[in-house]
Design a protein that fits this description.
single chain, 136 residues, 6 helices, 2 strands, mainly alpha, two-stranded antiparallel ribbon
């Protein structure tokens, strides 16, 4: 699991993935996403993990990963899936837009990054949109 979280952090820039509370929703997401990657994208995911292991100690591991000659086709596709899963909680077939729900849409890390709530989902009361938002 730690290796998957380290790889995920590298690919998404989300350093918080390296220090998840084991009882958090995000830890459950990580377990589900790891299972999904193993089941749906095994060959590319395995290749990506091998590359990650060899570049993790590099001065710039992301650059080293992206420039590794093994980072092609399946491994590259697996990397894209990991980014999509964490940011949008979606994944898809190679070469297509993400079209499958990974189960945590409202928890996608894209929403706090863009300071918005997921489309069609809000914890606010009905009609919240009728008032201007407060500025931070």
């Amino acid at each position: 699991m730690d290796e998957f979280l380290g790889l995920s952090s590298l690919l998404t820039g989300l350093s918080s993935l390296k220090t998840l509370d084991p009882s958090s929703v995000e830890a459950r997401m990580a377990r589900d996403y790891l299972r999904l990657m193993k089941e749906q994208f095994a060959p590319g995911f395995d290749a990506l993990l091998q590359i990650y292991r060899s570049v993790a100690g590099a001065p710039d591991p992301l650059q080293a990963l992206l420039q590794d000659p093994r980072f092609v086709t399946d491994a590259e596709q697996a990397a894209k899936q990991i980014a999509n899963i964490w940011l949008l909680s979606q994944y898809g077939s190679p070469g297509k837009l993400p079209d499958q729900d990974a189960g945590f849409y409202e928890k996608g890390f894209v929403w706090p990054a863009i300071k918005a709530h997921p489309i069609g989902f809000s914890h606010l009361n009905y009609g919240y949109w009728s008032s201007k938002p407060e500025h931070e």
